[in-house]
Every structure is written in structure tokens, then in C-alpha cells.
């Protein structure tokens, strides 16, 4: 006789661990990317291979960097502290928007080789949104 494990706590524990791994990887990537944009000028970013920065206003570059750093912090801090953990989902949504816009810029500029990276990062951020809403939500401190 086979038994089916219907314990939702056990399955959500696996989801919780997996989502934390994804959140940490995304946070590290967006923190590095955002900090680079915040600390570098247009010419330095172009030299690093970010060709789109040559025609972008410096304030836009800084805004994108700030959005990426804020998104990275939002993926970790609200969930880790359990203070307003729903902000983690909103941070992931914001990073999804950043990736859609980034893909649009790369497509417009003919930089098709970068779009798969945007798609993967979008998919991982969307997984965090879905997973934290459905599979392993984090309860607020109470």
C-alpha cells in the first residue's frame, strides 16, 4: 500500500528554502548591478559593456541603479525581518518591470544576445512573486 504525503508544511518548507535561494541570488545580482550603475559614470558603464548607457541620461542610469538596489533589499529585508513581508512580493514585481523595460531597450538597440538574461531574471523574479503568494508565504511578525 502506498501512501501519499499530503502534509502541506513539508512541501512548503521545500518551497520556502528554494525561494530563499532564488531571492538571495537575485538580490546579489541586482545589488551588484545597481551599485555599479550608482557608482559609475556613463563612459565607465559603456567600457564595461553596457552600450545602452552611452545615450542614456545620467539621472536615468542612477534611477535604474537605485531601483535595482531597492529591489535587491526588498527581496531580503521584509521577508527576513517579517516586518511587512508582502513588500518582498512587491519588490519582485518591481524587478520584473525593470527586466521587461531592459529587454525592450535591448531589443530596440538590436542587442538580442542580452535579452535571454533579462528573460531569466524576469522568470526568477516572477517565481518569487508566485511562490511567496501561493506556495510559501511569509507571515508577518505577530
Q: Could you describe the 3D structure shown?
A:
It is a multi-pass membrane protein. Keywords: Membrane, Transmembrane, Transmembrane helix. It holds the Pfam family DoxX_2. This is DoxX-like protein. It is found in: Membrane. The mean pLDDT is 94. 75% of the residues lie in helices and 0% in strands. The protein has 142 residues and is an all-alpha fold. The termini are far apart. The relative contact order is 0.15. The protein has helices at residues 8-39, 42-47, 58-81, 86-108, 115-135. The protein has one domain. The chain is built from five helices and no strands. Helix 1 (8-39) packs antiparallel against helix 3 and helix 3 packs antiparallel against helix 4.
Keywords:
0% strand, single chain, elongated, 142 residues, mainly alpha, 75% helix
Summarize the structure.
This protein has 5 helices and no strands. It is elongated, with a radius of gyration of 18 Å.
Give the topology.
Blueprint: H1 8-39, H2 42-47, H3 58-81, H4 86-108, H5 115-135
What's the gyration radius in Å?
Answer: 18 Å
Multimerization state: single chain
Report on the biggest sheet: none
**Structural class by SSE content:** mainly alpha
The number of E-state strands comes to 0
Cα-to-Cα separation, first versus last residue: 42 Å
* Number of helical elements: 5
- In percent terms, what proportion of residues is strand? under 5%
Q: What is the overall shape?
A: elongated
Please indicate the count of domains: 1
Order of helices and strands: HHHHH
Mean pLDDT: 94
- Low-confidence residue ranges: none
> What is the helix fraction of residues, given as a range?
over 70%
